[in-house]
């Protein structure tokens, strides 16, 4: 049986959409939103009608009928902790993301838009591998400070998709294997996958710095900087996320530009780039202890994984731990569609969302 699935992935200034027929991608488009238009809205949820209209227009312009869809799936937003896999969008999830969001984030629109479109044609809508997937073991939640409990926030969607894909290529099941996955993008996160569950992670504020994020920094010095009277809270948050990492050091978030600097003999750029590799490798080593060294593969994915320079430097440091698989790119739309396809084919069961 053939299933058609519309996948929707809202980002801060764009909305990516794709239509799949079973595993085959029929259509994809990135809808760019003018920054001034986005800034008109006080809350992310207020962008709902504008983004929905743009999606429907893009489909119409490409002669794609919504009525042909079997299901619609949106990027899972920042919910209270949820399981991995699919969730059918329900009224409680809509209320949480629309009226009681934990955090203002564009991904919150995924469920809102997919549900609204699906209702008009009487089909189900889903999210898959939300940003809030939390399968940490209790031992991994302890931070060392009772006021702060570790939680699971990482690039769950692409990380799990690449691990599932790797297992399929080896004619095995994801639930039979152990992986460490490093997602390298504007932010960097790492995750330990044990027999189908992400049992520990290193989030983008706990580990390696990245093109735009500072990552793990010395706590005492951070506290001193916060109270030095130089910066307000908003500026400090931006230093950690948005204006940190390579951007702070080299005034660019483009790793290709950094590699050009290195090729032109910039020793400082080389040191910083190697330091980012060094910290990624340390994170992989850290998570290898979580799995007691029983690791089928280390998977390197995300946009920076297209760089052979960066990935080769990582391999030099970690391939003694386990085989290294380079699976470049960010495959969120494919992951959303294929996850939903497994639900439609009864290979997976969708979870029911409760607060």
Automatic annotation (TrEMBL):
Q: What GO molecular function terms would the record report?
A: acetate kinase activity; ATP binding; butyrate kinase activity
Q: Which PROSITE patterns match?
A: ACETATE_KINASE_1, ACETATE_KINASE_2
Localization, UniProt: Cytoplasm
Query: Which CDD domains is this protein grouped with?
Result: ASKHA_NBD_BK
Keywords attached to this entry: ATP-binding, Cytoplasm, Kinase, Nucleotide-binding, Transferase
Q: Which GO terms describe its cellular component?
A: cytoplasm
**Under which main EC class is this enzyme filed?**
transferase
Asked whether the UniProt record includes Protein biosynthesis among its keywords, one would answer no
> What Pfam families does the record tag this protein with?
Acetate_kinase (PF00871)
| UniProt catalytic activity | butanoate + ATP = butanoyl phosphate + ADP
Give the enzyme's EC designation.
2.7.2.7
Instruction: Tell me the Gene Ontology biological-process terms attached to this UniProt entry.
Output: acetate metabolic process
Extract the NCBIfam families matched here.
Answer: butyr_kinase, PRK03011.1-5
Sequence similarity: Belongs to the acetokinase family.
> Which protein, by its recorded name, is this?
Probable butyrate kinase
**Naturally occurring in which organism (per UniProt):** Clostridium grantii DSM 8605
């Amino acid at each position: 049986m053939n299933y058609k699935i519309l996948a929707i992935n809202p980002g801060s200034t764009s909305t990516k959409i794709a239509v799949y027929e079973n595993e085959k991608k029929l259509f994809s488009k990135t809808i760019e939103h003018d920054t001034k238009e986005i800034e008109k809205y006080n809350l992310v949820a207020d962008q709902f009608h504008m983004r929905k209209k743009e999606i429907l227009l893009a489909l119409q312009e490409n002669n794609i009928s919504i009525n042909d869809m079997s299901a619609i799936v949106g990027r899972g937003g920042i919910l209270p902790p949820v399981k991995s896999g699919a969730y059918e969008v329900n009224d409680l999830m809509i209320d949480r993301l629309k009226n009681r969001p934990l955090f203002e984030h564009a991904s919150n629109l995924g469920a809102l838009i997919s549900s609204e479109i699906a209702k008009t044609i009487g089909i189900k809508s889903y999210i898959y591998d939300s940003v809030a997937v939390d399968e940490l073991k209790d031992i991994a939640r302890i931070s060392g400070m009772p006021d702060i409990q570790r939680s699971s926030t990482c690039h769950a969607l692409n990380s799990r998709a690449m691990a599932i894909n790797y297992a399929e290529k080896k004619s095995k099941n994801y639930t039979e294997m152990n992986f460490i996955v490093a997602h390298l993008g504007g932010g960097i996160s790492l995750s330990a996958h044990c027999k189908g569950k992400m049992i520990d992670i290193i989030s983008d504020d706990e580990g390696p710095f990245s093109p735009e994020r500072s990552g793990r920094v010395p706590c005492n010095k951070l506290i001193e900087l916060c109270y030095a009277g130089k910066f307000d809270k908003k500026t400090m948050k931006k230093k950690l996320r948005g204006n940190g990492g390579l951007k702070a050091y080299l005034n660019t978030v483009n790793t290709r530009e950094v590699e050009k600097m290195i090729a032109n003999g910039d020793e400082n750029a080389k040191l910083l780039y190697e330091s980012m590799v060094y910290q990624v490798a340390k994170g992989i080593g850290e998570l290898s202890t979580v799995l007691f060294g029983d690791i089928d593969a280390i998977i390197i994915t995300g946009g920076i994984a297209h760089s052979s320079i960066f990935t080769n430097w990582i391999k030099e440091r970690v391939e003694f731990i386990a085989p290294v698989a380079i699976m470049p790119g960010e495959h969120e739309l494919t992951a959303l569609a294929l996850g939903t396809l497994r639900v439609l084919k009864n290979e997976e069961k969708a979870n029911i969302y409760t607060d």
